[in-house]
Amino acid sequence: MLSIDASFGLGEALVSGLVNADIYKVRNGKVIDKKISTKKLAVYALKDGGTKEQETLPERQNRQVLTDEQILQLEHMGRKIEEYFGRPQDIEWCLADDTFYIVQSRPITTLYPTPEANDHENHVYVSVGHQQMMTDPMKPLGLSFFLLTTNAPMCKAGGRLFVDVTHMLASPDSRKTVLDALGQSDPLIKDALMTIVERGDFIKSLPNDKKEQSPGKSNKVMSSSGFQTQIENDPTIVSDLIKRSQTSIDELKHNIQTKSGSDLFDLILEDIQQLKKSLSDPQNMGVIMAAINASSWINEKMKEWLGEKNVADTLSQSVPNNITSEMGLALLDVADVIRPYPEVIDYLQHVKDDNFLDELVKFDGGQETQDVIYAYLNKYGMRCVGEIDITKTRWSEKPTTLVPMILSNIKNFEPNAGNRKFEQGRQEALKKEQELLDRLKQLPDGEQKAKETKRMIDLIRNFIGYREYPKYGIVNRYFVYKQALLKEAEQLVQANVIHEKEDIYYLPFEELREVVRTNKLDYQVISKRKDEYKLYEKLTPPRVITSDGEIIAGEYKRENLPAEAICMSTCFFRSYRGTSTCHLKHGRC
Q1: What is the fold of 2-110+574-584?
Q2: What segments bear the compositional bias annotation Polar residues (predicted)?
């Protein structure tokens, strides 16, 4: 998409903020949107030099500056200029005596690159990073590992991953499902996608040939492969899945110790295939979907029957097998061990070196502190911020990352806070459950409603905690892979193939495999990718982007807010300097 800004007179009026420009949007040779501004002033050139401000004639103040024919003429010129330079351009232009003149054209370096497609069809892409709460760019090795692991149709752009949701939006059968699912994690993504769908000119709707199923009617769920599976409401299913995952990880740790070179890469690929198989296992997917569907059913029915909103959040408190919650509570337990030892606390307040654990034994309570931190790292040390990127530094690699969190827990929580917080959440969930069931029994068909609700609550309590575990399993494996690959990197450093171990982060999996096999690499490849990564770090990734480069930001729905509500939001502005301009930036403004 192309965007044109136009106003009367010289562009200086735009630079100084005296006027607002008309904005025209053009796609595929058609004017698809026009915002006509009021232009009361204009700046004109004087014959003897200098400029003057002049009021615009009343009949021109609300007039469209360019005719539709002129807009398309300018668009054609802009396309030819972009084609000549081979990249999007910020073009300054002027119109005099019905003739367009190009004043300047410069590349736009702040645009977010468009994900590549193998066809010329329209596509809609959704950011993976925003759903994972990790919007930093990923290095090539991290990107390749995630692409090897996932079954979703993902593509790369600007060092980030995006999912192509075009076909899901085009199908009435799947559109509501994908909108609701993405809306739960990020309302702005849902609003942006709805904006595209409602336009009706970008995605062609497919015929609706399936009846939409109502979630929560039974424990039958659809797996990612499309097959139905029946899940019994049995909490031991989750325990067995966790044991199976941990056994598999232990086997990987044992088997990988003896592997190097091509054999190592073969083992990793084989293990990733086993990982993907386990992730798409009907029972694994069934547990997660049963919990999600039960949560949706509870929220829908409790709102309909009792006027209660989002009660599934309360009912999900302190559920068993939630590895993320357990990780946070375990760090409170670490603080409890350290709290009685003032010398250790004082020492931790000044540590900067990641070898601080070795020095702990010098202090009273140091051995106990060292033991409890090592125990924590042994279970959770493979985690970190942005952990879906295998190249990110893990807590085990930089344990000082944990120190501020431990000290904060010591300062802000009383002893045994972890157990109290868990029990408090459990009691709140049980209290809400009993309250709902008691109220339901007072309704017509109350006993049946209560019975059905109890079954759904049990599904949530038994299964919802497991939703976090598959990612924990992936991150566990990533750390095992990473440690083995860094040993290979040490060999490459010794052979002067790379300069430092972390250089392998800039090689995708297959390229790294070839470098390890041949002991050869053009180091300029690494240097170039490091420069690209620095550029990607400066880019702001979009939540939603189309194949023609348009970024749809989305908006929060605030129609039902009370008049006295205070809304806090951050607005991002991008301003352009120069004369009235044709910003050939594909609508990315």
Answers
A1: D-amino Acid Aminotransferase; Chain A, domain 1 (3.30.470)
A2: 215-226
